[in-house]
Amino acid sequence: MFKDHDFHYAMENTRVVVAPHSAIETFGTTRFHFNLVSELLDEVDTVRVRTGTIEAERPRILTAQHFSKVLLEGFGDEAREFAEWMESNASMAKILRYGFQFRKTNFAEKIVKEPMDAALGRLEEELKRGDDPFAALIAGVDDVWEVCLLKFTTEMIQRSAGENIAEWKRRGLA
């Protein structure tokens, strides 16, 4: 079981190196393709690269109290604990006024003998050469990597919220 300081450490040490060009869609499912790179603490110049897809279902306006009841399908107990922790943290709950169901799919991971900066640079170049508007590169913490992924999703929510609310208003739904 992870402690409060584990969540804080993951939140402080997760950064999005390449953000998706597209925001969360207002009326449909959005699939972000992630590459999450984390250093292995017990091996020098070695990283773990996790890849997969995060699906954010169409946004719904919900109360903050409902957040911990939202399913985090495919995530482990640590992610559930994190969701509950976020609900109890008033300043974080405000960014989650509407809920999503997140699923991680197409998951794979591999160990790469390469320094963190080199791995991030190489993957960043690969993503820039590609044409996937939903691709993301995230630098995170190995043992709480799911929390890092959830931090990425909360940043996408913050980035998308204005567009989503404006679209709801244009259609008379908010």
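The record above closes out task 2.4. Task 2.5 opens with a second protein, given below.
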Amino acid sequence: MKKRKMAVTALDQTIADLARTTDHTTLAIWAADCAERVLPYYEEQYPTDSRPRQAIEACRAWARTGVFRMADIRGASLAAHAAAREAPEGRPAHSAARAAGQAVATAHVPAHAIAAAIYAATAVRDAATADEDDAATVREREWQYRHLLELQKNRVA
């Protein structure tokens, strides 16, 4: 059976619902955290290409400062997605770079955080062995859900 392009779990809707109740800055932090967890998949394959890392750093800078320059956000996102296109589809590096591109795009549109998390989970799935990929994906999505809950709680406190 051919695997889906994107990882899918039973938690997807629950995470999406939680994200809709989360403030914009918290979503950006969460998206950057999700993307950074899988960034080693990209950097191990392409150690001299910093475009995905720069996208995550741009996302964190926006979350920290609130300074938004569309050209910077868009440029960082497009650069990370270009890096993804250069990595073979279906490989962890591809989805890790996509996660970074989506994470920084969260500064512009909060819903990109959900895509960043799904791409991160897809990178984890693609890095796992065939007999472990479903369980690895579920573990990643469970971490993402718990982490978003924790970030929400800490932002309110």
